[in-house]
Amino acid sequence: MKKEIIPSLLLTIVCILFFSGVYPVIIWAIAQAGPNKGEGITIKDSKGKYYYENIGQKFTDDKYFWSRPSAVNYNAAGSGGSNKGPDNPDYLAQVQAAIDTFMKHNPDINKADIPSDMVTASGSGLDPHISVQGAEVQIARIAKVRGLDKNKVDALVKAHIEGPMYGMGPSRINVLKLNIDLDNLK
Amino acid sequence: MSPQILGVVVMFIATLFLAVPLGRYISKVYGGQGVWTDLIFKPIERLFFKVSRIDPAREMNWKQHLVALLTINLVWFFWVMFCLLNQSWLPMNPDHNPNMTPDLAWNTSISFLVNCNLQQYSGETGVSYFSQVFGLMFLQFVSAGTGMAAAAVVFNALRDKTSEHLGNFYNYFLKSCTRILLPLCMLIATIHVFEGTPMTFKGIDTLTSVQGDTMHVSRGPVAAFVAIKHLGTNGGGFFGANSAHPFENPTYLSNIVQMIAQILIPFAMVFAFGFYCNKKRLAWVFWCVMTVGFLVLVIPALNAEINGNPYITQMGISQPGGNMEGKEIRFGSIASAFWCIATTVISTGSVNSMHDSFMPVSGMNMLLGMMVNSFYGGVGVGFLNFFIYVILAVFIGGLMVGRTPEFLGKKIEAREMKIAMIIALFHPFLILLGTAIASYLAAHDTNMGWWFADAAGKHNASGWLNNPSYHGFSEMLYQYTSSSANNGSGFEGLADNNPFWNISTGIVLLFSRFLPIIGPVAIAGLMAQKKFIPVSSGTLKTDTGTFGLLVFAVKVIIAALAFFPALALGPISEWMKMH
């Protein structure tokens, strides 16, 4: 073992310099040509304020399309899910409470139209998307609160559907982008 | 075919198409044949060996290999312990994260050293960028390289020859990192940068949301990290939510890339064995056995997640997306269910959804994937685990046909069998012993004193469970299974950052990493010294479907006998309660 200590130490040092020094610097240099220089893709609203496109935000106000429940309250200084098991009675009570709240704020809809993603927490707690159905069940409320034509809101939602990638994966709607455009809707 | 199903089928087939040529390339790298990467990396490697005073042409026997492997691993352990215990004053800490506690640093260093990446901290608050890049990411490269080098030694020993000389450890190790891992990492990290994964050394950004709330956004050099995390089947996430985090895994495309990246080398190592030892048919038999095992686990999980939670159905809402608790909309329940099994049959342990919230059937299949731990398995070590089962199957097959068991022209005798049995039985022993102790403590609600305190400061052992009843038992079973399989995923509800869990899983991790490397290398080394026996009409043919079936049966029998009682107390009871 003694014979191997010096070569091991020296090889470790050069490997640290190479894999932890050279490699990340190369990727960082590539990122300078990437979107927003590798600092996270941002979008701006009409007032010029910027947001991170991929990081979901808390939307609980009736005049906005709601985002999903979050175990970390959409504070992206951390991340994580509820980690509740599917038969945990506390968890099921929380889901029931979320359904009741949703029904209270959206009295015009059928309960059976609520998709489960609107009452369950995402894995990261920062999910930027909701399902298409999750947006559709909120159209009536948005139109009423904002005094807008329902068809107009409906068209806005349709315009924000991101379909499957080359025919693969689920359809989804970025809540942040949808709400920014909703604010611009007259 | 629905778009979500199509997505996972494409992922799987694409991996296979890439893995065969990669396997040929890996076999050439270990065989010392010329490859196109010589142009860039040959001078670099020569320089590294010169600086380190290593002669890469010095042949080692199996014992010398193991000594070199263990020595360099020890050096790495001390380096990363140093980083984690001193990160508060070391550079690159824009968010001012504090030093780790000694028990957490012990667990984290071991966990990354052994390619497990069980994370009992959250990346946003638990580590500095220095620790991430120079400590943890460094280990992600070299621990993967270690596993692959050990597999290369076994490949070398299984060639038709009688020899003590099995190549040079440092040579296999460094080439695994520079020739195989690094070029692919460059490609994968670049794709991620353009998909929107951050690669910056700036700290937390503070901004006001559309609705007017103040929010903080953690960033960091994520793209470089996420590439090696998957390619090396490490699985440790940059952020707490791992690949569920929208920065770490921003799009459906990045999800596909990460999935391919993690299964690619485990696939390719099987084919590399075939090319290296000129046993291509046997390699395909091995691959098919692994694939059957994978499909048996993944299909019920897909089905369970599509159908959603029966209790939520009873509440009268719809579940068009399936069981969405703990899952992200952009992946959907199908890509998440596929991932949860893929990440557990290989030893990645990264997650793109929270395993604690999956249906009982999926939870059981994740556990089974880790209990067998060789339906593909981790880079290098997956093949080694599989090799143990092959030795057992050869022995049983040999007894059935009434001949001395032999594999690839070498006799399997008592000494090899003893090693194989110890390795095969040690895995269930570690899992069940740990789970038994933890569940005894939880069931008796023991006062744990210094060893454990929950968020409220109480020392009662039941406080580490996030869910009651059967699911709580599964949380503990999962933690030890994940540790012993060097997987690293978790039923993350478990409150595991405390001395009891940090120290006990740390010990399990050490044993379960190094014994399954030492055992197969020793067996292969012993076999290599033996006289070669040419194939005759009485030889048990191994490159046939029958033999594949035998290997599969051995796995099922060992897993079923060892783990069925524990599974019955956890996910099986939970399933019966729900239906």
Short description:
The complex is a heterodimer of chains A (186) and B (579). Chain A has helices at 2-31, 89-105, 132-136, 139-146, 150-159, 175-184; strands at residues 42-44, 50-52, 129-130, 161-162, 172-174.
Largest sheet features of chain B: 2 strands, antiparallel
**How much strand content do the residues of chain B show?**
under 5%
Strand order of the largest sheet of chain B: 1-2
User: What is the molecular shape of chain B?
Assistant: globular
Count of discrete domains of chain B: 1
Q: Which structural class do you get from the secondary structure elements of chain B?
A: mainly alpha
Count structural domains of chain A.
Answer: 2
Structure description:
The complex is a heterodimer of chains A (186) and B (579). Chain A has two domains: 1-39, no CATH class; 45-184, no CATH class. Chain A is 43% helix and 7% strand. Chain A is built from six helices and five strands; from the N terminus they run H-E-E-H-E-H-H-H-E-E-H. Chain A has a three-stranded antiparallel sheet. A two-stranded antiparallel ribbon of chain A has the order 1-2. In chain A, helix 4 (139-146) packs across helix 5. The termini of chain A are far apart. The model of chain B has no long low-confidence stretch (mean pLDDT 94). In chain B, 62% of the residues are buried. In chain B, helix 6 (129-157) packs across helix 7 and helix 15 runs parallel beside helix 18 (545-578). The two termini of chain B are 29 Å apart. Chain B is globular and about 75 Å long. Chain B is built from 18 helices and four strands. Chain B has one domain (3-578). Classes of the chains: A mainly alpha (186), B mainly alpha (579). At the A-B interface, helix 1, strand 2, helix 2, strand 3 and helix 6 of A face helix 1, helix 2, helix 3, helix 6 and helix 7 of B.
